[in-house]
Amino acid sequence: MMADLPGYLRNCLHTGKLALLAILVSGGIVLQILACALYNNWWPMLTIIMYVLLPMPLLFFAGSDGSSLLSESDNSWVNATKFLTGASAVGSIAIPAILKHAGVIGWGALAMELSSYFIFILAIMCYIRMDDNDDYSFL
């Protein structure tokens, strides 16, 4: 379907995809900061640690073969990568939930933190979908 479109229209659509990706990431960051600033409590920023740790196993252990993460594998490094990435993802949800349970943050901050997390996940899924059929790769 995309091959039938003229080149200028295809480039415009790809630019729109990148803009949507940038808007999603920016929206997630804004919600993260608002969850702290509106309630004058900066404890929810602890989830930033998990956001930084989340891609690290993928960068260190998966290498350039990202397709092995989506399939069954007997490779112990790939299995360790899946485990550590999953633990970081659960930690991104658990930290705000624990802070709410301990009475450190309120319901509004919890809702904004979880909304920020799901917007980041949506941005990652859009990036993966966009990366599957992009014309930006040089290889």
Automatic annotation (TrEMBL):
Pfam families named in the record: Vps55
Keyword Transmembrane helix set for record: yes
InterPro entries (UniProt xref): Vps55/LEPROT
Single GO biological process annotation from the record: late endosome to vacuole transport via multivesicular body sorting pathway
Claim: Transmembrane is one of the keywords in the record: yes
UniProt topology in membrane: Multi-pass membrane protein
GO cellular component: endosome; membrane
Transmembrane segments: 18-35, 41-62, 83-99, 105-128
Locations listed in the record: Membrane
Main location: membrane
Keyword list, A-Z: Membrane, Transmembrane, Transmembrane helix
PANTHER family for this protein: LEPTIN RECEPTOR-RELATED, VACUOLAR PROTEIN SORTING-ASSOCIATED PROTEIN 55 HOMOLOG
Family label: Belongs to the OB-RGRP/VPS55 family.
Name of the featured protein: Vacuolar protein sorting-associated protein 55 homolog
Organism, scientific name: Herrania umbratica
